[in-house]
Write a structure and sequence with these properties.
RNA-binding, alpha+beta, about 1000 residues, nine-stranded mixed β-sheet, ligase, BirA Bifunctional Protein, domain 2, ATP binding, globular
Length: about 1000
Amino acid sequence: MELIQKHLKHLFIKHVLYSSKRNISKYVDPDKTSKAIRQCFLNYFINDHSHDFVRSSPVIPLHDASVPFVNAGMNQFKGVFLGTHTCQYKTVANSQKCVRVGGKHNDLNIIGLDGYHHTFFEMLGNWSFGKYFKEEAIQLAWVLLTEHFKIPKEVLYVTYFGGDSSLGIASDLETKHFWRKLGVAEDRILPFGSKDNFWEMGRAGPCGYCTEIHIDRLGPGNRAKFVNKGLQDLTELWNIVFIQFNRNSDGRIERLPEEHVDTGMGLERLTAVLQGTLSNYDTDLFSSIFKGIEKICKDTPKYSGKFGESDWDQLDTNYRILADHARMVTVCLADGVIPDQNQKLKKIMRKVFYLSENVFKKDSGLLKELSNYVVESLGGAYPELERNIRQIHDIILYEEDAYKLVRSNSAKEWKKILDQQPKLNDLDILEMPGLPTAYKELSLALKNKISPELSLKLYDTYGLDADTILKLSQVLNCQFNVQDFQNELDKVKAKSRQSSAIKDNKIVDKMVKEKVSVTDDSYKYHYQKTNGSYIFFPLKAKLLKVISHNAFVGNLVPNVNAALVFDKTNFYSSAGGQISDCGVIKFGNNVFQVTSTDNVNGYIFHNGVLESDSAECVPLKSEGLMEIHRDVRLDCMKNHTATHLVNFLLKQLKIVTCQKSSKVTPNYLNFDVGIFNDKLTIEELENIEKKINLLIEEQVEVLTYEVDGYSLHEIANLICIPGEVYPSSEVRVIEIKDANDFLSREPCCGTHVLNVSDIEDFCFIGFQSLGRATASLHAVTGDRAKLAKLNGEEMLSKVSEWESSMKDYVNNLEVFEEGVSNIKESLKYSMDGDDILPISVKHKCLQKLNSMNTEIKRMRDEFIETEMKKALEKINEENTDKKFIVHYLKCSKNMENIPLHKATKVCRNLPVLVISYSDNVVKARCCVPKDMKSPNFDAEKWLENTVTSIFRSAPSKAKDQDTSLVCNMKGKKVDSDKWDMLLKKSIEAAKHYAEQHLKQQ
């Protein structure tokens, strides 16, 4: 297969690379497309050289918490290099999706400014795990580039490690020899130091020489002195790493027992070379996206490929940023990265929305449309993009709506700050909506230095990165140490990974130094079902360590809190959302009550107390008989399996969901889920509940099996939690599959029932919205589900009876209202309590109770209106020119929180003063029409000089009202034995005041 047109060498020699930018879209040779180049690379290694294909892992590492994104092709094979994992293949080739937006490789701030940096790129790579080494790796790379891709040899340079005295490592002359053996000229084989040609995974761990192939984009000639000088036209094309050493923690370098090859070549750069252009952005990987932008944004000038000063309005730079970020966002969303859980992704998406509105003049929808172009470009190589297109679209639309909401809420506040601090103008409020609040807090807290603790709060609470905090510190003239902040962040991350109640890590360190074996807790999965009943087998285990008051002790003393470590255990330690087991450990006649367990670096600490009436101690090396609490474990198993069913059915119903957290206890399960389209409804929860109970009736089997952790991403329809770090080996997968379309498949370390029928019954008992996109669900199984449903029937009956009795309380609405309020209070139950209800029943009851409250309000308003109309009629019957109303609302004694504005609105054209008395509290309201007030008579004066003074209260301004027109009296407690006398006195005073002052008008 011919892959490069015959005249590529001529193109190099004639130096037409500078002017080849706009010809990319005119390609007719199918061998020059990026798709063909990618496939050619894979075919070369897989078909011609018997490498196995391993599909690209997701861009979020499944087994590595040390990096936020997969940023190199070797990430998914890191365990092989570390010696913690054995790859099932000896030689591998693939194209790996990579994202670089943080850490050591952070290209985010220079995207668009040059032609070759990207936040997302594809890394072509081939690996050998102990099969071939230097000579074959070098030969494979050289033949592919020069014979298959037909890149002229005279434009290529190769580098090798030239030695480093500080490392105590001599030159890699062996690599140099192999290049010479291939015929590479001596002046094109160049030695470099550790910075360029010695690869290290970290401060300690696997490392080795590397050799790089560089290409001179200007053509033949010798520019060897410019290699590795950062020139855009003389760049690295392929890096070949020889992993043959291990660096110890003390810095010493030793030989590895097995030698590996790890290579990486960026597809974007290779495509640019083969398509004859200096800029990656001028290849078909980006040209289709540029065309999409031009098609959607018809009023925006077309992309012209300008850089630097030529791009005076930065339009082309923004084209490149938009296209690059569209690729990165689309790939991340397809791989299940959730913006709410990944601030870097959220920040990039908001930058895209900003560019869409302010540069490309599209209020909405541009990123969603561009994602289709990305899927069309990359979907063939990465089918998950096509499979998850709905997910991509829904999350983009959700985030765009959120962005607009943030913009409207925060923009005005930030503008005020910018008026005072114009130097902050380059900080984008839309990318970091917490900026205004963070700035205010920082301004108030500042002395002369931002402490690591405060900087961590700015990062964690308000979403500010280190660069933004540094900018704020400069504007506010205070010190900020980025390294101190990073150290504090690392501490928090390390602490969050600890799940132990053992506070002092010295305990664990001592056990490691003493070579105490970690606890074998595989027995937690040893249970079976016999004759319809679950059996959890007791386990004999040897007592290795006793910790009391955070120190080792020689014996287990009765009636003192302690943590015990054994050689093995059948107790489950809190993980995967499931709480730990409780139970007993018997030492002869002595019983240790286990209240909880903790897993710290493989050591299981059994927390509790030895209950004994004697002073007999239990010595180390004693054998104990472990028995877990059967009912607690079984109820947890029911709830954990039910959690998986809920997760799958929600995803099936809403398509785009993300598990945020879960909690599994014996009494209930709690599942918090992000939903990125229409909000979840009670009716949908009822539907999920019915489906789970149908699965219970169908007696669907629950399968559990172990898989190699590095194969996780290859398992179809597997639901992983974004950002979760899974083991690299022996990952348990829980699969529930019926004869229809139901398939729940999740990696999970928890314990589960063996058949869905063992759940017995299922019922949602809690539903709460946590913010715009998160729903928190509570549910119960088994006997507690049956209890909830029984309680529900009784509650519905009670509410219906109360509803039908409303007519009996027409003259005593306060009592009826109190009854409704008491029933409402009973709906605020604890999830652990015995008064739980099905959420559907709770919802129906609340609807009925709210309806009753509405009816009570209507009746109360009707009583007030009727009484006031009668008072108005009485005034109208009187033959006087000076009309006003002073009235005590008799109906108020049967009402609570009487709405006096309902009374005064009946008499809008007359001065009116009304008084109420309910629950021994007197209130009053006074209104005077604008055309009837005078310097001596208005609402505030009328009320203050009469009723308010008699009851020794004070005027209170009505909301958004002129007190001369509308005025209230603050509520005042009045004893019932004084009420009649004070009421009579206040009415007489109010009438007299009105008569006197209205006469003066």
